[in-house]
Write a structure and sequence with these properties.
This protein is mostly helical. The chain has one domain. The longest helix is centred in the last third of the chain and has 29 residues. InterPro entries: Glycosyl_transferase_4, PNAcMuramoyl-5peptid_Trfase, PNAcMuramoyl-5peptid_Trfase_CS.
Length: 368
């Protein structure tokens, strides 16, 4: 527990104190936000706001995690390091995209296909390492089965298709999750503090989930025989909670400076990094489909963009909403930015509450 608390505290203080320094440095380097012509006119005032702020909380989270382990005198676990790998790897893709935009002073960063290819490469490396790592209890970091609250045995790719094809399909499944989640968080990053606040809720749920999975681990000593039937086979669940706490602390510190009017933007560096961390935590904690609820706000925003584009193409130029993503529609309707952000945070919180409730109810339902 001391490791978790120290990791969260150090990452929060690091991000809170150093974000203004990074913001001033980025401003001097002319690494400012570029505003697209098709965004609401109220965003014009944000032009030039330092971007790539995700660098700050990614560094803060990694620092907090390792300091927490140093103080707690516990070695880092491979599953948590895999979360860091995913977060840093996707953050690097976002950083390249952000740098190209601010260098060219237009919205032409990495092309969509290149971002997807980069995301797939990182996710494949992550998946191969996760599938091949086994802890001292013989549990692999990732599974070849689709999971909701735990693995679904009837949806195990290897059991259905055999070792060769099954492993390939499992890796493809994890790549799909990673690509979907990272892009969903990226779409939500359109208003000051929106993606950061919503991510705090979603990532925070994995502190609760990891702690509970550790308490009810199939390998925990003294586990009550009455509840042994619903124990969790997850590698290093408590350390997954530690890295989740480190990321949450870092983003909270960053959010202090990212709320309206934002002094720094997270950019694609931050949104892709957060999406990567969220996807990795879902995969490693065996809660992949539960992420639909835990990241419900991101699902809604992404779904609205998909529906809007499909309708636009089908009707040759007509729209259901005034704009997409959804938060820009409410801007066009006339809602103040702060009102939209706070209400979306509330929706994100309700989705997370529903997801954590479902996680716990599933455990209760299995009681003998």
């Amino acid at each position: 527990m001391i490791t978790l608390l120290v990791a969260a505290a150090v990452s929060l203080v690091f991000s809170l104190l150093l974000t203004p320094l990074f913001a001033r440095t980025f401003r001097r380097m002319n690494l400012g936000q570029f505003i697209r012509a098709d965004t609401p006119t109220t965003h014009v005032v944000k032009r030039g706001t330092p971007s790539m702020g995700g660098v700050v909380f990614i560094i803060a989270a990694v620092t907090g995690y390792f300091v927490g382990h140093l103080v707690g005198r516990e070695p880092p676990s491979v599953p948590a390091l895999l979360v860091i790998l995913m977060m840093v790897g996707l953050g690097l893709i976002g950083f390249i995209d952000d740098f190209m935009k601010v260098h060219r002073q237009n919205s032409l960063g990495l092309s969509g296909p290149l971002k997807i290819v980069g995301t797939i490469i990182v996710s494949v490396i992550f998946s191969v390492l996760a599938l091949n790592y086994h802890d001292s209890n013989g549990v692999s970091a990732a599974s070849t089965a689709v999971s909701v609250v735990r693995d679904l045995p009837f949806l195990d790719f290897v059991a259905i298709f055999g070792a060769g094809v099954g492993v390939v399909l499992a890796i493809a499944w994890m790549a799909l999750i990673t690509t979907s989640v990272s892009n969903a968080v990226n779409l939500a990053d359109g208003l000051d503090g929106l993606a950061a606040g919503a991510s705090i809720f979603a990532l925070g749920s994995y502190i609760i989930i990891g702690f509970w999975q550790n308490q009810q681990s199939c390998f925990a000593g003294g586990l009550d025989p009455d509840v042994a039937s619903q124990c969790y086979e997850v590698a290093s669940p408590l350390d997954l909670a530690v890295i989740a706490a480190a990321v949450v602390g870092a983003v909270i510190g960053f959010l202090w400076w990212n709320t309206s009017p934002a002094q720094i933007m997270m950019g694609d560096t931050g949104s892709f990094g957060l999406g990567g961390a969220l996807a990795a935590l879902a995969i490693l904690s065996r809660t992949e489909l539960l992420l639909i609820l835990l990241g419900g706000l991101f699902v809604v925003i992404t779904g609205q963009v998909i529906i809007q584009r499909m309708y636009f193409k089908a009707t040759k130029g007509k729209r259901i909403w005034k704009a997409s993503p959804l938060h820009h529609h409410f801007e066009m309707v006339g809602w103040p930015e702060v009102t939209i952000v706070v209400r979306f945070w509330l929706i994100a919180g309700l989705f997370v509450a529903g997801g954590v409730f479902l996680f716990y109810i599933e455990w209760l339902a299995l009681l003998p």
